[in-house]
Each structure stands twice: as structure tokens, then as C-alpha cells.
Amino acid sequence: MAGNVPFDRLAYTSIELLLNSLPDRNDIPEITDHDAELDSVPNPGEEQMDTPLKELEEVVDIAEDASSDLFARALTRLLQCMVCSYPLRDGINLPCGHSVCRQCISTEGNGTVAVAGEKPSIGNAEGLMCCPVRTCRKLTASASMKVDRSLMAVVDCMLRLIKETSEVSIPQLVAGHTERLAQYSANHPWSYDAEGDRAAHLKKYVLLKQLLHTKTVETALIPTFPHLCSMFAFAAQGRFPYDNDLIFERPTPDSGQTSQINLEMPNLVRNQLERELDCPICYKLLLYPTTTSCGHTFCRSCLLRALDFSILCPNCRQELKMHGTLQGHEPNRVVTGLTQLLFPDRSEQRRQEDLAELHDGDEPDEIPLFVCTIAYPQVPIYLHIFEPRYRIMIRRSWEGNRQFGMVFFAKCLQEQHGEDASTQDLGNPGQLMPGKYYMEYGTILQIVEKGDLQSGRINLQLVGVSRFRTVSVRRHEDGYLMARIERLQDVSDELEASIEAAEVGSKGELNLSDRTGSGSGRLDTKFVQCYGQQYFRTLNSLTNAELMKKIHTWIPLYNSWLRPSTRRKIRIAYGDPPLDDPKVLPYWTMHMMPTNQDELYRMLKADTVRERLKLTCRLIDEIGIHEWCSPFIPIRVVTLRRILAIVCLFLALSIARTI
Fold it and tell me: What does the pLDDT average to over 260-270?
């Protein structure tokens, strides 16, 4: 018999909930007519009595049969189209995760895709399509959609299985089911359209009564045809709506063979479909299955890794233009449901393996290392990632805590080591010494926003979190570096205040704030000739407030040198300068300042606020003596000189051609 009684879950755990809600059989009235049935339904909050022990065996038998029915209905529903209720024919997987028949969507003349059988007004903006599933209706980009090959292989396998296990022709079986369904519908029409305040718990109560009392279906089961085949064949004729359920009568004692076939059917289905639900890349059970535009299905992680190295499909080598939209592409709901229904243990094991692989070999104090440039805490930074190894690293960081470390490339150490650091070979496994390929100090970055491009490249918006010192580093199997780090903190406020008081009190003779040697780098020759050692004594004698005031004076002057469009872009990207925060202001100023990487690295090493303020002020004075950005020579004069030089060059070339 059939009724509009949808199940909340498509797994065997429904049986446990079903048994827990069973009332005592003595409390279930007999069915006489529709009104009596509604009056006899107990209230949802009424206390239920425990099932007598003597009926436990009968309840177990009923639950065993119900589990077979639940499995059969769950599998049949997964393979039904949510629009037409037929088994999927030329099934297409949409970016929202739903799978529908190709015939259930129609393409209009302007290239948009609308629901078949509905007005074109449901259509969408040009280049978009609407999911035909009424509970979804998500808009996605329309593209050349190919048949889901994995899903169609599962449907074909089910058809072959039905043909091999059935002894009755499908037309005869469907005719018998149609007759019984029509008879039941005529006798109990209220089971289809029960509405009102009590409809929700009424449907559940009626379902429980049908499991305990099997008096409404008079025609016996066809002994040689399993429930799964019956449901699937019934759906193939379009007589089994997607939201309806089909409940079979309890087998009679002489129909044990049929009951045994129904119980063995899940194992038979698993053996037939196991191969179709394996990933073609890793040859494991599909995890978060994602269907490509060419119709092939892979694990999401396997597909992402493959697209990092090539935009071609790993199976058919067709070009895939979906890397930029893959993050918003939902997993294939049908294939996901099949893996969880048929292989629940393996599916959970695959999830655990994926989590373990994500953090394989990672120690608590290890982070991925990106060798690029210098960043500062609390200061935004923007990166464009294009190398495959770093694309993998960024994706894993995004799926984890969204943090990684960035250090500067050690090209500035070429003179110190007597060799070009860019030629260092990192292909050998083992520990890599800091300072050979990268600088020892770096910054932990937090990913704020991630943008995937169609080519597979990634745009990142990040912000610095804290400084760190690299202790050791190793190469990950995917090519990027993993570093064991030591997080660095600034000195305490008490020590900071004592250092300031000592330097100011000594009239600049002491330089206690330079604890890491960050200010002992070589200076510009013009700077030394112009200021000398007296400058450093004067700088050390200034208080932190006076150093902050010096920076406040320079920032408006620096903005006056910039074009209005450049100032607007800086304000949008980095915000206004943190004038009231002495811990962040030096970082922000140095990030905007046109200086070399050596000075930027010295700023990163400094662990006192006072040393960072002095370093910023020293660089402000050093930059001021250069002609190209001197405050005494307006920027328009420099631009005019460049224009005159270009004009003279063109005149010389013209004269040379005439001669």
C-alpha cells in the first residue's frame, strides 16, 4: 500500500527511532472508518507504554522487514528524478548538487535554461539557469551540461540487477502494483491528503499502525520478486511519486524465501555498485563527489589537486573551465547519498582519512611556509598565488585554521654566504637550515578573503597576526615547506618604559632598545656625511611621544607627494594610518615607505616599540635627503625633468634618421 508518508532519514537509524516510538499494541484501536481513525489517534504528548516482552520477537521481525523496505525506498528515491519521479534518464548534475533528467530542463533561444513545462518568465538573466527542483531554485551559470556518467552507470547497473534477479516481467508486476494501489487509494483517500494541525503526527502514527497491522492489502507478494526490484520497476513506469512511500505487507510464514531475498538484497546491490562509486584518481570510495562539466565524478580533493596542475579532465582530457567556481559547486547529492547508504562505515573512514591526510605529519608548532616577501603584524597584505604547490598549500590552510607563515627570500644574504640563494637545491629531504633559502624571521598571516580565478590562480587578502622565528623546516610531499617556529612577543610594558627612561636620561649615549641588532645596518653614504654620529645621540634622546609626533608630521607630507588616485587606493587597501597606536604605526609606515628589503627586515626583527619608532624616524630622515623624493624639490619638478629627457631622446633619434 502507498501513502504520502515521507521518511525524515534515508538510513537504517530510522528503525531505532521507529521502535522507540512504538505504542503498546493494546492501545491501538481497530480501523473502522476515517472519522473513527482520526478520533482514535493519541495526542502527541500522551505517555506511551513499553512494549510487552512477549511481543518483542514480533516487533523485531517487523523491524527487520521494515529495514528492508527502508533500504529499498531510500535507494529508489536516490535514483529518482526530483522533478518527474522517473528513474534518472540522461541525468545531469547541477552546481547546486541536485541531479535531474535532461528532459526536465529546456534551453531557450537566448541561451538561458528554464524548467520544462513552465513559462519562460521563470527563466533567468542571460547566461543563468534555474534549478528545476522546486525546493531549490538556485541560479547558476548555464553551460554545456553533459550526462553524469557515474550516475548513469549506477542506474544501468540497477536495471541489469533487476533483470537478473526477477522472474516476473516488469509489465506484469507494474500492473499488479497499480491494481493494488488503486484499490487502496479508493478505500483510504485520506492517507494521501491528510492536512490540518494533526497531519504531521497523524502520518507517523498511521505508518506505525501499518507496520503492526497488515490488514489493508489483500493481495499477497509475488514470492520471487524482491521489494527493491518492485519499487524500482514501479518507479520506472512513472506511477511512484518521489515523495511517496511504498510499504509491503508482512510476509507470511510460507514466504520466508522472499523475506530472505529482501534481506540479502542490500549486499547484492553493494557488490554491484561498489566499482561505480570509486574515484578514478585515488581508487577509493568517493568523498564529497564533484561532477565536472564533462560528466565525470571525482573526489573534491582529488579534482582540486588535479586542476592545480592542469585544466584538463583527468579522465577524458577535455578542458575544464570550472576551477574558479569549484568552491561554490556543491557535492553530487545523489552519489553522496549512495555512498552513505550503501557503505556507511567506509564513508566515515574516508572522512577520517581525509582529515588525517590534511594534517599528516604536522606538529602542533608547525605551519606551512610561504617564501615571498615581508609582512607585518596588524597590517593588510595582498598576494597573487599561481604556483601549483602554493595553491595546494593555500587551499589546505583555507580548509583549516586559515593561517600560514611568510618569510622573505634570502637573496639579500648572497654576499654573506658567497652564493646566490636562488640556486639553492631544496629537492633533498631532511632539515633545511634557516638563512640559506629564506630569512629566519617571518610573520604569521591570517586569510581574510580568498578569490579563485578561472585559470586556477588565487587572489588573497591577508592580515598579519604575529612575528615568529624559524627553528627548522622540512619539505612537504606536495612541494611547499613546513616550518617549526617559535612565536615572538614584544617586551613587557614595564621593560619598555624603563628602556625609554634610561635612553632619555643618558642624553642619547645609551641605545638599549636595539636588543636584536636591527638598527646596526649600513647606512646611506649621503646620510652619514650629512648627519654623522651626533644624529644617533639626538635620536636616542627623544621620547616615544616625540618620535610619534615626527611620524605624524611626515605622513601628510608623504601623501602630498602622491597622486590623488594613489592616495585613494592606499586608503581603500590599507585604511587610515593608526596614529594613536604606537605598536602598529611603525609597521604601517614602513609598509608604505619606499625603502629596501634590508630595512624592512630590521623592522620585523625589532622586539621593542621604541626601536621600531626610532628605525622609522631614521628612515624618514634618510629618505628626505634623496633628490627624487626630497620635500624641498616638488614631485612635479622631477616629473618635468623626466619628460624633458624623453623629449630630448626622441629629438636625437629623429635627427639621426634624417642624417
Answer: 65
- Distance, in Å, from the CA atom of 179 to the CA atom of 495, rounded to the nearest integer, reads 91
C-alpha cell, 91: 541525468
Same structural domain for residues 159 and 253? Answer: yes
Question: Residue 282: is its pLDDT beyond 70?
Answer: yes
Q: Which three cell numbers stand for residue 251?
A: 510476509
Q: Are residues 574 and 562 in the same domain?
A: yes
Give yes or no for residue 48 having a pLDDT over 80: no
Tens of pLDDT, residue by residue over 352-375, are 888 777 665 556 678 899 998 899
Average confidence (pLDDT) over 510-532:
54
Torsion of CA 584, 585, 586, 587, to 10 degrees: 50
| Averaged pLDDT of the chain | 69
- Please list, in sequence order, all residues whose beta carbon lies within 8 angstroms of the beta carbon of residue 165, skipping any fewer than 6 positions away: 226, 229, 261, 268
What burial class does residue 449 get, using C-beta atoms within 10 Å of its C-beta: 0-12 exposed, 13-18 middle, 19+ buried? exposed
The full DSSP string for 33-97 is: -HHHHHHHSPPTTSPPPPPPGGGHHHHHHHHHHHHHHHHHHHHHHHTB-TTT-SBPSSEEE-TTS
Measure the CA angle with vertex 55, ends 52 and 57; round to 5°.
Answer: 130
Q: Structural domain of residue 552, as residue ranges?
A: 510-625
Nearest Cα to 610, choosing from 583, 591, 588, 592?
583
Which one-letter amino acid corresponds to residue 626? H
Q: What is the largest CA-CA distance in the chain?
A: 119
Contact yes or no for 278/286 (Cβ under 8 A)? yes
Extract the C-alpha cell encoding 642: 623626466
Three cell numbers written together for 502: 634610561
Residue 566, helix vs strand vs coil: helix
258-279 exposure pattern, b = at least 16 Cβ within 10 A, e = fewer: bbebbeebbeebeebbeebbeb
| 480 and 532 both lie in a single domain | no
* Residue 317 resides in a domain: yes
Give how many domains the chain has, as a whole number: 5
CB of 246 closer than 8 Å to CB of 262: no
First-to-last alpha carbon distance for the chain, in angstroms, is 103
**d(Cα 529, Cα 535) in Å, to the nearest integer?**
11
Are residue 191 and residue 269 in the same domain, yes or no? yes
Give a yes or no: residue 469 inside a domain: yes
Q: Give the number of other CB atoms < 10 A from CB of residue 565.
A: 8
Helix (H, G, I), strand (E, B) or coil at 297: strand
Whole-angstrom CA distances from 655 to 546, 641, 642 are 57, 21, 20
Q: What is the pLDDT of residues 76-91, one digit of tens each?
A: 888 888 888 888 888 8
Identify whether residues 598 and 516 lie together within a single domain.
yes
CA angle at residue 562 from 557 to 567, to 5 degrees? 100
In 3D, which of 389, 351, 371 has the Cα closest to residue 442? 371
Do 437 and 476 lie in a common domain? yes
Same structural domain, 165 and 232: yes
Residue 631 lies in a domain: no
Rounded Cα distance between 302 and 350, Å, is 13
Residue-wise pLDDT for 458-484, tens only, equals 999 999 999 999 988 888 888 888 888
453 in the same domain as 400: yes
Residue 101 included in any domain: yes
Q: Which 8-state DSSP code applies to residue 319? A: B
